[in-house]
Amino acid sequence: MHMDGVGVMNFALDRVPQAIGEFLRFYGVGIEEVPVFLLHQANLLMLEYLAKRLGVPRSKVPVSVWEVGNTGPSSIPLCLSLDASERGLAHDGAIACGFGVGLSVGVARLALANSVIVPPVDVFDSRGRKQSVFPTALL
Predict the structure, then answer these.
(1) What residues contact residue 71 under an 8 Å CB cut-off, 6+ apart?
(2) What is the pTM for the complete model shown?
(3) Mean pLDDT by 10 residues, the chain (139 residues)
(4) pLDDT for res 61
(5) Alpha-carbon 72 to chain mean position
(6) Interatomic CA distance for residues 110 and 23, integer angstroms
C-alpha cells in the first residue's frame, strides 16, 4: 500500500474549489462575502494555488503549516488558534474546508464573531519537555 501524493494533490486542487463554490451557491453566498477561508494546512504551495483557483486574495487564506506542519484533521483548529489574535479571524461567515483523507472534502460556514479564540498554550511534561496545547474556541 502507498499514497499517491500527486493524485491526492490533483484531487484537492480540483475538488476543493468546486466543493466550496457549490456550497456557496447552495446557500446564496457570494465568494466576495467570505471574510476568511480556513483550509486544511496541507502545504504552502497547495494553499497558494487554492486561493488562486478560488479567485480570492491570498490574504484571505491564513497559513500556519510553516509553523506546525501538516497536522492532518487538526490543521484548521490549529490555524484558527495560531492566527486568531494576530489576524482577527473571529468573523461570522468564515468558510472552513477540510480535505484529503480518503479523497474527501467537507465545507462548513462558521459563526465565530461571538467566540473567544485563544492562542496556543505551552505546557511542560514531568521531564520538562514542551508540549503545546491548542485550545481553539470558547463559545
Answers:
(1) 41, 78
(2) 0.83
(3) 78 95 98 94 92 96 80 81 67 90 90 81 77 54
(4) 93
(5) 10
(6) 13
Torsion, Cα 83 44 26 31, to 10 degrees, reads 70
DSSP 3-state of 137: strand
What span, in angstroms and rounded, lies between the C-alpha atoms of 100 and 27?
Answer: 24
Spatial distance between the Cα atoms of 8 and 68, rounded to a whole number of angstroms:
21
pLDDT attached to residue 138:
47
Structural domain boundaries in the chain? 5-138
CATH no., domain 5-138: 3.40.47.10
At 132 the pLDDT is 62
Strand partners, 121: 133
pLDDT for the residue numbered 139 = 43
Report whether 79 contacts 4 (CB < 8 A): no
Q: How far is CA 118 from CA 7, 9, 105, 128, 134, in A?
A: 36, 31, 27, 23, 8
Any residues with CB less than 8 A from the CB of 111 and at least 6 apart, and which?
Answer: 92, 93
